[in-house]
Design brief:
The protein is α/β, with parallel strands linked by helices. It has 14 helices and eleven strands. The protein is 38% helix and 16% strand. Helix 2 packs parallel to helix 12. The protein starts with a helix and ends with a helix.
Length: 350
Amino acid sequence: MKPNKKDHTAFRERLAKTLQLFAKRRQSTQPIEKIPESIVILARECYGDCIMLTPLIGTLRREYPDLSIYIIAFSRIIFNFFSADPNVTAVYHAKREMKRYVKEILTKKFDILFNPKDHPSTHFLIQSLLINARHKVGHFNPYHEGLFDYLITMSPNTHESEKNLSFLQVINQAALKNPCKPYLPPMPVSPETTAFLETIPTGRLVAINISAGHTGGRRTTEQWSQLINDFPDETFIILSAPGELPQKHQIERPHPNVLPSPSTRNIYEVGEIVKKLKLLVTPDTSLVHIAACYNTPILALYRKRLADRTQFAPLSTRQQIIISPTPDVIDIDPAQVTTALRHMLNSAEF
């Protein structure tokens, strides 16, 4: 039988308690006054998490041009994301390419390590212990006590970007007054997407993202089709993950006001489309945070889960959130989505 979420949580808590017993106890209350020369940041596992980390990385690069910024990734997509970021000195995969990781990270000493998770995580705690750093910074949690020199206390359900930027409290409080905005690192754009971008006018199209990164995040083809039919004078495009191309094409074909679009090959290509939109309609996925990179107006559909709509809320200036009455966005009334979209499109800003 597969272990459930409670089993995983219990294991992480037992691991954290074990590390607290045997690891060298750390604690400090004094800010770091010396200008740092190197920092290691443990990167969370999803695209949205990556994008919400970029304001901190951009601010660090602006404030400390000579700082060496090392990112530790735990998945290939995150490794590839930060490998494309010119603000990052080097990226390491903690689960693959172990020889390089051991030689260039685990055998050296750095000024600062930052663990952005506010709860005990097996891989993050182990790497926080293994990586040699003069100062280790994390978020307050009873299971983090003694493992870090600095524990930052934030209000429950603080936005993920604010939690990441709170690291600056430890080294440069003044930089918090003007942090960098989220961004996408530049990546190759396919000839198909390039040609498509040349044909679409800026600020004229409405996009619907049909993909979701978690259970309960998808609407039906019929629900999306109904929304498109409710706006015959608008031109739509459909965005989807590669694995959902059949559903994308199923929505595109019967609607004369849907402009067929190529399948995107990386997150940067998606961003190049999103920044040209009039408005984006999407469930709670990384597209919410891609929109924030370009301040694209957004209508976001969220499950009935407080953490989703607080820690990962949209950051676009023009936005509206619809919350499902259940843990599934499929249960949002289609009429409510139509009304919200019509209100946004009819507002003076459009």
